[in-house]
Amino acid sequence: MSNVDLEERASTLRFDNPSLANQLFGPGNMNLMTLAECSGLTISSRGTALRLDGDAGARSRMSNLLTQAYGLLKYGVVLHPRDLEYAYAALERNPASELKTLFQDTVFIASPRRTITPKTLNQREYVAALRSSEMTFAIGPAGTGKTYLAVAMALSFLHAKRVKRLILTRPAVEAGERLGFLPGDMAQKVDPYLRPLYDALHDMLDFERVSEMLATGIIEVAPLAFMRGRTLTDAYIIMDEAQNTTVEQMKMFLTRMGFGSRVAVTGDITQIDLPNLNGRPRSGLVHALSVLDGLEGISIRHFHQQDVLRHPLVGRIVSAYDAHEKYS
């Protein structure tokens, strides 16, 4: 990058590498359009130069973001529109943020071309908790990477031989269909409830490798009821959709932890599918958060709609529902 010219209402940035500048701008300037939308600036390109028009504070943050992002591209970091959007939000919260600490903290290398990294500050703190705490709770809406990052961390522990097994579980809550009326044996009946866990595994490892690890028991995917009576040692144990556990189920699960094990519990307390008890559902996750808060060895991390990393529309849907429930 050669220089930055500041005017009263506009800033001009010039980049010295046309190939990297094109990566920064994105296909059809997609990255720039995303940044313009989240910052309120008008961003126009000409060759390898950019002109930023609008609020001086937003221009300063954007110049900082683009300068740091350009540096990351030089080191081979791949940046997507959503990555840049969250980087801008991080700089809004803390102008001194260094993006390399956000985007170069690799959790798991699935292949030479596929690495998994935290994309938001909350995700970064969550990953730090998964590394350092024996038990971690992650609470927040869908699409914030709660389960995905836990699976990635578990695979990294497995790869480093810090654990011997990966166990993934969910409560099989009946929502509209009763298990007894679904076709197939018990494994086939509960499989739809466990499918999101398989999806995460297949996104990180090739199909043959996942099948081999499932067949040898290195990876186990099972409904929560299958955990009863077991003591799970040297394992990374992840429970997804924990808001749909009863108090008794949650206590049963948490006490399955054996020596050398790590536990991650993820859930969204706004999406409880349990039957109501005296007018309200009694979620084991909600109960556990009140009982275990502050206990040594346990970390609790909360995510918000700003951390949603799925399609941008998902974040807007979550915000719309939150606003509706607030005023209804």
Poorly predicted runs are: 1-7, 174-179
* Whole-number mean pLDDT: 84
Indicate the structural class.
alpha/beta
Number of helices: 12
Number of strands: 12
Q: Whole-Å distance between the termini?
A: 51 Å
Proportion of beta-strand residues: 15-25%
Order of helices and strands: EEHHEEHHHEEHEHEHHEEHEHEH
Mass-distribution shape? globular
Helical proportion, percent range: 40-55%
- Strand order in space, largest sheet: 9-8-10-11-7-12
Major sheet attributes? 6 strands, parallel
Explain what the structure shows.
There is one protein chain. This protein has 328 residues and is an alpha/beta fold. It is built from twelve helices and twelve strands. It has helices spanning 18-25, 30-39, 56-74, 81-93, 99-103, 121-132, 146-159, 186-204, 207-216, 247-254, 284-292, 312-327; strands spanning 3-6, 10-14, 42-46, 49-53, 108-111, 114-116, 135-139, 165-170, 219-223, 235-239, 262-267, 298-302. Strands 9-8-10-11-7-12 form a six-stranded parallel beta sheet, with helices on both faces. It has a four-stranded antiparallel beta sheet with strand order 1-2-4-3, with helices on one face. A two-stranded antiparallel sheet has the order 5-6. A hairpin with a 3-residue loop joins strand 1 and strand 2. Helix 7 (146-159) packs across helix 8 and helix 10 (247-254) packs across helix 11. The radius of gyration is 22 Å and the shape is globular.
Which terms would index this structure?
4-stranded antiparallel beta sheet; 12 helices; disordered N terminus; globular; 328 residues; 6-stranded parallel beta sheet; alpha/beta
